[in-house]
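Researcher: Predict the fold of HTH-type transcriptional regulator CynR.
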Amino acid sequence: MDIELLRTFLEVERLRHFRKASEELFVTQAAVSSRIKLLEQTLGVSLFIRQNRQIDLTPEGHRFKRYAERLIAEWRKARHDVSLGETGAQLAVGGTIRVWDAGMQEWIHDVHRAYPELALILESHTPETLVRRLLDGQLDLGFIMEPPQIDTLNLIEVAQLELVMVTTNPDANLEEAMGQGYIWIDWGLSVALQYQRLYPDAHEPTLRIANASVALEFMLEFGGAGYLASREIADEIKDGELFLVRGAERIQRSVYAVHPVRTDRLDLITEVTGEFRYRVSLPKRPRRKKPSSA
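Model: Structure tokens for HTH-type transcriptional regulator CynR follow.
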């Protein structure tokens, strides 16, 4: 099957618009329509419902989407493998947004320094999508905070992440920090349950942010308080931009490496997960300053 047909199908599904899909693919709208028609004829089913300028997947389209994503990923990996030759190595790695916020970016840098010839495919997904791509063989290794209990996946605890409540107000006590201006940062269900047990009478925050990096920037810009990973804010605390909230409990969060039980990359996976454990145990590396222009 033509890979371009699959790419076109996935773009139309993502954008739910033929014209926008054609712009993303740099082809005409007529070409997109022709590709979808050819794909539907090849499969013998309708993939989209078109009515009142709305485009939705049919039940058959929903089922086909998973296979299309898998075929595209396998094609990409095949191209990498062939171009690398017999001596090359490749690793497809995914992480959830929470793990990328907790040191995975720096770990990637460490891995690239240690294995400069290693071809890396890096992805960010929700926990559900990450697990599915591991099961489908589209990823070799994943990092997650919500461990799946699946027999065909091997689960390794690689790091303990410490979350601390911080504030931009050096004089704020616990009650004041959790009042107006408190930011709920989404660290997952486990942290949410711990938070409820620790602070059963806490007011409902008016501001919720899913991404810890975004929350940190917002906090520094407008003030406020919230739970952040201690390793990520060591510099801000040292520089007097953030302050630990007196009386606030620390919350521990585990990070897990997940990979298929049956894999031909086990030795490499074992080595790089050890690098992850070491990296997350250290404070965040200071951001490199750009040289000033003359």
